[in-house]
Amino acid sequence: MDKGRFTLPGETGMEEVIADLVERWGVDAVRDSDGTSLSQDILDMGLQIYSTLCLVREDNEWAKQHPQYRQQIYLMSAPLIVTSKVKTIDIMADFFADQFVPNTDVDIKKYWQVVNRTTGEIVPSAHWSYAEGIVTLEQAEQFHKYTVSFLAYQIWEPVSMYNHITNNWTEEHRLPLDVRYSEAQEHVLKVLKDWLAKHPKTDIVRFTTFFYNFDLIFNKEGKEKQVNWFGYLSCVSPLALDQFEQAYGYRLTAEDFVDQGRYNTPFKNPTPRYLDWMEFNQKFIAGYAKQCVDMVHDFGKKAIMFFGDHWAGTEPYGKYFSEIGLDAVVGAAGDGVTTRMIADIPIKDTEARFYPYFFPDVFFEGGDPVGESMPIWIKCRRALMRKSVGRMGYGGYLSLAYQFPDFIDHVTEIATQFKGIHANAEGTQPYKASFKVAILNTWGYIRSWQTHQVAHSLWNQRCYSYIGALESLAGLPFDIEFISFDDIRQHGIDPSIGVIINAGDVHTSWSGGDHWSDPKVVSSIREWVHQGGGFIGIGDPTAYEHQGVLFQLADILGVQKEMGFTASVNKPKVTPVKEHFITEDLEDDIDYGEGMTMIYQAEAGAEVLDVHHNSCNLAVNSFGQGRGVYIAGLPYSIQNTRLLSRAIFWAAHQEEQLYSWFSVNPNVECHAYPETGRYCAVNNTSETQKTTILMENDLRLELELNGMESVWMDMNM
Predict the structure, then answer these.
(1) What is the pLDDT of residue 454?
(2) CA–CA distance from 389 to each of 5, 271, 315, 383, 436 (Å)?
(3) CB atoms within 10 A of CB 189
(4) Among residues 215, 256, 259, 309, which one is catalytic?
(5) Domains: count for the chain
(6) Where is the Lacto-N-biose phosphorylase central domain (predicted)?
(7) Where would you tag: which of 24, 88, 323, 495 has the fewest CB atoms within 10 A of its CB?
(8) Given pLDDT bands bounded at 50, 70 and 90, which one contains residue 272?
(9) Domain span at residue 396?
C-alpha cells in the first residue's frame, strides 16, 4: 500500500507489529497515547513521530504543591424541600467526591449563593451558614425548594478520570492546573520548554487539547451526570471573575454558571452574560495557546490540536482560533457529522481519528470490533467523499487491536479506500448543486456540524431525530453553511443560499426560541421565500408562542402545532397526497424518530404527504414564488437521506439537478469530481447492490457493487 496519510498509535513492545502495519496500512506516522510510550526502536523507524501532551496535567508534583492553582468549577447542589425537620443541605451529596472538593479558601458568602428555587430569590448570606460540607438554612420558607451554588476545586482531571474508569488505570489522580494564574502560566511554559528539549525525535506535538476541559460532571457513583461538550464551566476562578469584571464592567455570579441547574447547555439560547464569558475566555485562551504553539515552532516542530477534550476557548469555528497558529487539527470521527466537523475547519491540515478506539470496552475476548467499525466507516466515508480530511488514524492500544486479525484486514480496506479518495479527487471539489443549503439556529457558524450534540457521536433520545438530518447532509452534494439569527438581522440572507433548514424542539437554541418573535427575522425570511427561496422545517421549526400561534412561519410551512390553547377550534381532516416528487423513492414507511403530535394543516393550499393519528408528519406548501416543507423528525437512514435530498431540490425549485450523478438505487451514492474526470459509486450497505447511475450528459451506467465497495471510474468511459 502507498505510504502516507496514516497515523498509528504505537507502544513499546509492538515494534514488529508496527513494521508490519507500515506495509499493510501504509503508515507514515506513529503516535503515543495516554498510558503508552514509544521505544527507541520505534523512534528510529524513520516515521513521523507524534507526541501527545496535555500541559495542564503534565507536572502533578507542582500541582500538588500549589493547590491554589487547581482548576475550579461552579456546581449546584441537589434541590432540597424545606420542612420543619429538614433545613440542611449536603452540597456534595450528588457529586463524585473523587472529582470535586468545595472551595472554602474563598469568602464563601461572596462567591457562593443559596437560592430559593420556588421564588427564584437569592437568600441573604446572613440567613445561612456552612460547616463540614453542610449548609444550614437559618431562615427558610416551609415547603419551598432550595439549592446551594458553590465553587469547587477539581481534584481529578476529567480525561485522566475517564481513562481510569474505562481502561482500569491505577496511576495517581492527575490535577488540572488553571493557567489563568500568572504563576501557573509561567510554570506551564517552563514545562513545555523542558519537554521539547527532552523530545528531540518528536516531529509533531499533539496538544490534548489545551487548558480547560469541556463540562464533565460525575455523580456520586462515578457516572456521568452532566455533559456539555461546548461548556466553559472549568474556566471559572476568583481571578477570572475579577478580570472579567474589569473588562466588561459588571460582575458574574454563581447563578450565571449553574443557570438553574442547566449549566448553560447549548440547547438553550445563551444569555448575553454567558456570551460575554465565552468571548472573555476565548481571547485569553487563544492568546496563551499561541505562546505555546510559537514555542513549539521555535524548536522546529509542528503543533496540532486534538479537537475533543480541553478545547473550551479554542473552538475551531470561533473567531480567535486562527490566531493560535496551529498546523493542523485532529479529531475523533464517529460518524459523518463529526467527520465533516473536522474536515471543514479552516486550517492548513486536518486529521480524523476513526472509531472504535483500541480500548478494552471494544477489543475484548468475544468482542466484535469489525462490527463496531463497519457502520461508522460507512458514515464517515460518505462525508469524506464530500470533503476529505488530510490524514486518518486511530487511538488506543495497538496490543489490543492486533489480537483481532479480521480487524487488521478490515482497516487495510479502510486505508485503501481513504487513500483512494485522495488519489482520485486530487484535492478538487466534488460536483455539487448550484445553490447552498443553510442551517439556521441561534449559534450559527461557531456550532458548524455541532448542533444537537450532547457528547461526541453518542445517541440521545431527544436528539437523534434532528442530528439525522445533518448526518444525511454530510454526504449529499450541497455546500452547507451554518447561519444565526444575528446573521439575518445584520446581513440579510446571502443570495447563494437556495434552501434554509430550521430543526429542533420548541424553546431550544436549535429551533431558535424567542428569536422567532423578532419581526425583522420573520419578515426577512418571508420575503426571501416569497421571492423564490426554499424553507424546510423539522420538528418544531420557527416555534415560539407569540401572537396566538406556535409556528411563526406556518404560512410558509403550511402546518401549525396545537398546543392546547385552541383545542376548541376545528382542524381540517386531510387525505394524504399519494404521489409527490419528494416521496417518489419511498419503499417503506417513513421513520420520523420521536416525531411530533397535533400538527395540523394551517394553509388551504398546503399538501399533506403523510399523516399518523391525524397529525401531519410530512407536508409541502407554496408561498409566493417559494416553497416550504415540513418534516416531523428525521433520524439518519438511507431512505431518509433520499427523502431529504428530494425535499431540498424540490424546495429550491431545482428538481432536475437531483438527477446529475444520481444513483437510482438509494443504497448506492455517486460522487463526481469533474476537474479530474473521475467519479465514484459507493455501496452504503454490507449487502451486494445493483444500480443505475444517471450522469450529467444523460448517459446511464449499470453497476453491481459488493457490500461496502467503492468503485472509481473515468467519466469518458
Answers:
(1) 85
(2) 10, 35, 18, 9, 21
(3) 16
(4) 309
(5) 3
(6) 436-656
(7) 495
(8) very high
(9) 6-62+182-222+269-425
